[in-house]
Amino acid sequence: MKIASIALRNIFRNKWRSFLSLSAIALVTFTIVFLFAIMEGMKLDQRTTMAKFATGDARIRNAGFEKYQFIAPEEFMIPDYDKAIAALRADPAVETAVGRFQFPAQVAVKWEVIFGMNWPGETNSTLATGLDFSDEKSFFSLASYLVPGGRLPGQGEILVSGGFAKKFNLKPGDSLILYSGGTWGQQDAVLKISGIVALPLAQLNVNSIYMALSAAQNLLLRQGQAEEILIRFKPGVAVGDAVAAVRTALARNGFKDLDVKPWNEIGNAGTFIDLASKIYYFMAFFFFILGTTVIINTTMMVIYERMREIGTLRAMGMTGPEMIRLFFMEAFFIGAAAAFVGVILGSALILPLSVSGVDFGKLIDLGKTNLDISDVIYPQLNLVSTLFVFFYSTAVSSLISFIPTRRAAKIEPVEALRSI
Amino acid sequence: MGFIITLAFKNLFRYRRRTIITAIAIATGVSMYIFIDGWLQGAQAESVRNLVKFETGSARVVNTTYWEQKDFLLPKYDIPDPAPAEAALEKAGYTVAPRVTIFAEASKTGGAGEAFTLQIAGIDPARDGKIFDFANALTPKGAVYLTAGRSEIMLGSNAADRLGVVLDDSVRLTTRTRDGVWTSLETRVVAILSTPDPIVNNIMGFVPLDVLQNALQMGNGVTDIVIGFPEWLDPDKETAAINALLAPLPGSSDYVAKSFNDLAPEFGQIAQSKSGGTKIILFLIFIIAAIGISNTVLMAVYERVREIGMMRALGMKNGAVMWCFIVEAFGIGLVGALFGVILGVFAELYMVNIGIDLTPMLENMGNIGYRILGVSKSLWNPDTIVTAAIVSIIFSGIMAILPARRALKKEITECLRVK
Amino acid sequence: MVKVNHVVKNYTIGKLEVHALRGVDLEIKDGEFMSIAGPSGSGKTTLLNLIGCLDACTGGDILIDGESIGGKKRDERALLRRRKIGFVFQSFNLIPVLTAYENVAFALSLLKTGPGETRERTMKILEEVGLTGLEKRFPNELSGGQQQRVAVARALVKKPTLVLADEPTANLDSDTGREILKLMEDLNRTHGTTFVFSTHDPMVMDFAHRLVLLHDGAIVSDKAKK
Amino acid sequence: MTIKRSIWLALLVVLPATVFAQMTAEEVVRRLEKNEVYTSSKSSGKLLITNQFGTKTKTFTAASQGAEKLLLEFTNKEERGQKILRLNDQIFVYYPRSNSVVSMQGGALKDSIFGSDFTYEDLTGEKSILNLYKVEFAQPSTETVDGVQCYHLRLTGITSVAYPFQELWVETARLVRRKAVFFSLTREPLKEMEVKETKEVSGKIFPSRFVITDLIKKNSSTEFALDSIQINPRLDARQFSLERLKF
Question: Is the ipTM here above 0.85?
């Protein structure tokens, strides 16, 4: 009689309990597979979001911008923006390059009319951005964040972010008075809200407004200038090399004093993503521990329950290592089957979700309106990590049986026989 | 019922080993849940934490007019005698640190340096450190913290770069006194602050409170009384409590307490809009913990089908048998939850106060000067601790129902035959 | 041949020291069919466990086929049991997931017996214990007597020097008990296997060819009957 | 050189000193301020604002009535139509593109006007030096500034004034401001004002061009130049009202 087949039969002996063990391990495996996919998705989301909204694969700004951004940012624009964009697009490594114009603005959302003039009441600080909507189609496509009922802004119009709209109860068709001042003076305009965008980044959704790049340039009397140009490189392009090429190309085209930075050198973008993924890995580790304790527990229960049987086997002359092998086999069979089930279930769930995305914001927080941030995350199924989870789950759930089994092997047969 | 409870508890002790195993499973689940929730909250609250520890404090008491004009930081609208309010707050267990916060033009003394507007805070070197964490952000080597009475300044790293100053350089601050009189102050740079808070790095400078009060002719007046309270407390509730606490004090109608949510409203909103991803992680953790708990409780009950048969054979009613098991499972849940909470709290104690330093594992650390960023810490989560404990206890009890009911459906003889 | 030399066994239960055996000397010759009897608590089971290498002596020594078991390690004792000792338990203790056949064959598989031989020996012994036709049944599909027959077969299949049976009939009705004893007696005769069983049942004592009486951990009488 | 001529020269040098030496410092200031009082004015001019990032020109027309009412309207391209109205201590800014009026209050008054060295606050407040400062002569009491002889006065704030110390140079001959340096409480020089040109209209002498230099910031100065000025012209009093800001 082979130990393996005894082990196998033991599994079917108490179907309920085996089912429980199996489902526990399978669920743990499933959860970990899912968790990994979510974390991978979150990482990707973070990276793409950052790239979309803030950094691109690389960002070009005036070299003086950083130093003077708090006192006179508008003095440090990229002149001849069109020429720069043309030069960039000529670079074969560049997929797309877009110019943006960001500026702080005071916005009056309510006003009274006295003597035929508007007297602003409630005002709020916002960050306004001018974008080239047609260039941005494949970059930061505001159209895809539009709340139904809105459209992209035309002349004299703007988009407002969901959080901002919610705070001041704004809807398309409402107007705002915008004031934006630089060192040299203050400019103003009445702008009509053409639509509301629910943006996936809290910072942006809270208080941003968007208008056409040309409108922003005109408003701030900065025709032909942009604050920054974001570049997306073609897939497979090494960012470091491409950035160097961009620098050369710009210099060749007569641009001086421009600062080209790859995304991971902008602010702490790289570090934050790095940090986040490290934290996720740690959490996955604790996850494993938690899952592992479930497995240990089950095995321990099984062993205590079968104490008398252990005694009999010992009396029949089974040695400690043989005992351990028996229980190990049992754990291994359950573990492998469970890990398999878990991985299959997990993958089966993730694959469709990785295409459709999951809006966790909506899923969990039912109090949300469509003006709120959409927490759409696209879980990413990674073959390597999934295989890893399968082997890990199997290994852990079988190896872990050593802990209680070793104790069982040490129990004197007399004791084992005496227990009920 | 009393009998059932007695019996249930006797069983708990009789099957001590099983109780312990099951309780350990529950404890692991509970503690892990508490731990990960705290950590996730900590990771999520990292930006808020940085805000609180470097920029705003937990709350502040300010003059109402100062608050209305907060874009201008006018020392004219101060709290002339902060002592009674400070005493009242300290008595109530809050940490307090008085500050004077103003705008000033700063430039390097003696050079043709440029002038930049900075936000200058006069801080009490002894008390400020109890709320703020600048002591950990001092760079470069040789940097020291401010000393009261000395005309010294600690500058945000980017601000220092802009001004072109390094350690021991002199910085002239030009600003207006409480009464609007232009004045200037020569300070010596004793530290460059490299913090995770961009506002501090970019536009802030710190000088000793007494020096600034003197320069601004403010007497004992301060513009803010910064309050520190543990980060797991609800900032808005605490702020309401502080306002109530200050109400009976003379002149209190001029002051108002503002929580960090008010002090940095955008941050507050960001913090509130928790990302769904972390919620799903918690949900998954809960599932695993629940599996662990249910698994062991189920087994504990299955193991004793024979006992159920025996109890019924002795003439116990089904309901009573059921209750007996439920109470026992509650008991196990209770023990497990208790240990889980203790374990979780200990783990959090470490994670809240020390945290895990991920710095050595970070690849892109090159451009960051501060270590604090790499240290991942937890946030106290009393709500979760209580919820996790209660849910696990109730859950354990409920989990006993299923197998007990199955056992009760069986014929007594059948039960007795089970081994 | 088993030689028990002045064996002492003490247990500590809590703070209380229990003297289970207080110096027992006993010699069991090959082919004996012997009963160790005595009231409960007299040390029967302890003595059997010690002889069966399930437990270690506090003092004295036991020799099996001239081999001392005192200094043996846990797994060495296991191997010794595997080769030389068969057990029959009061509550049968069959492996519930194995059929009657497999339960018996399992004992041989531990000795790494080849498949052909295993099959032959197993079928033969099952026939001898009168279980032909019930080989494929699982323990819970067998009556108590049948289960004990399987247990006896399992103990004997490996041709042990010694079969130890701790109250083998205690869980059986008297008719079945007698059948089992009869079976063991037959096997003792045909195979020449030494049988040592403990009991406090006078009917069982009657079967024994030699009766050792234990009282308070010491032998009070030792007489051959047949 | 004849004796006669040398006497004249001596007279020229000594006379003012002897004649006006009897004047107290307060008297100098009183005479100075008397020149600056008129019931109404109308002017147009420009501001040349220089900071570290470059220079911009803003043109404006201004009308004032008494010391309490002032209306500035910008006429340069960027801020065309923007108006600043002062009524007593209140300041209103009118933005034509959004047809809106913003009332400047509190800290906003300390904001610079279009990046110049003027703040909105500078348009308001108590004007008489003697109410705010203790005035005394420096030693020596006269000094030449760009070849023009001036009284050198030291002003010490007696109430809380923005600049607790000032040094003021007043032309001895015409008793108009020539130059001023503004100091902080710690006697750090913060700003300097220098009159470059003056114009006489209806018996009053106006500084038609002066420069304010920020001494803390590098390359920061504002030049104020009047193209035309009318004293006590006929003014439509209603233009200093909120109702009419729009027009």
Answer: no
